Amino acid sequence: MKMVAPWTRFYSNSCCLCCHVRTGTILLGVWYLIINAVVLLILLSALADPDQYHFSSSELGGDFEFMDDANMCIAIAISLLMILICAMATYGAYKQHAAWIIPFFCYQIFDFALNTLVAVTVLIYPNSIQEYIRQLPPNFPYKEDIMSVNPTCLVLIILLFISIILTFKGYLISCVWNCYRYINGRNSSDVLVYVTSNDTTVLLPPYDDGTVNGAAKEPPPPYVSA
Q: Which topology term describes how it sits in the membrane (predicted)?
């Protein structure tokens, strides 16, 4: 006869490097927070000094601007939103607030769906890779070497690379989801399931409640021998 909490049957509380899912979610949130903070600093420096990140049309291979003010403002807004989401996930995992992790989990699902659409597009339209490479600037590194690769091999290499990325992203999604389940289970009532030999289930009250109720009762009178 074994007493187990019902939520421990559906998820694992350990992730990579044998650390807890809560610790892994905190590290993941801090990592994303650092990356988006660096991107925000680069965007702000580019907005303050546009000439530093200015590329001429000859360098880009076309008559268009690399990043105008409107796109720069949109990128800065996205970076700020990502910093907020990552900070919420880190704080929620540290303080064990499950609801604060949901925005970061939704972002992971959205990012995974976008990468899946890219993989499907490459699989359905393999010639789009060659067309995209031809549109790159003439001085793009290793452009001629990439163009010389067999198109079928190039598609397989890209699909393999995207599959590895999707596998890693899926693992991170499971880590964050298990952290959410763990915190949600800890914050809920700690009711244990006790299964008897005749397949009947008995719900035991939380330990704290039982202790308090037991302490509130008056002790029995002392035993006096006759």
A: Multi-pass membrane protein
Mean confidence (pLDDT) of the chain: 76
Most confident of 20-24, 43-47, 90-94, 213-217: 90-94
How many Å from the N-terminal Cα to the C-terminal Cα in the chain? Answer: 41
- Average pLDDT of span 194-204: 47
Q: Is the dihedral of CA 103, 105, 108, 113 positive or negative?
A: negative
Question: CB neighbours of 180 closer than 8 A, spacing ≥ 6?
Answer: 98, 101, 102, 105
The residue that leads in pLDDT, 192 or 220, is 220
Q: Helix, strand, coil % (nearest 5) of the chain?
A: 70, 5, 25
Contact 203, 16 (CB under 8 A): no
Q: In the numeric block, which tokens belong to residue 110?
A: 């959205």
User: What is d(CA 3, CA 194) in angstroms, rounded to the nearest whole number?
Assistant: 5
Q: What 3-state DSSP class applies to 45?
A: helix
Placement of tokens 């763990």 in the chain: 182
Q: How far apart are CA 149 and CA 152, in angstroms?
A: 9
Interatomic CA distance for residues 43 and 41, integer angstroms: 5
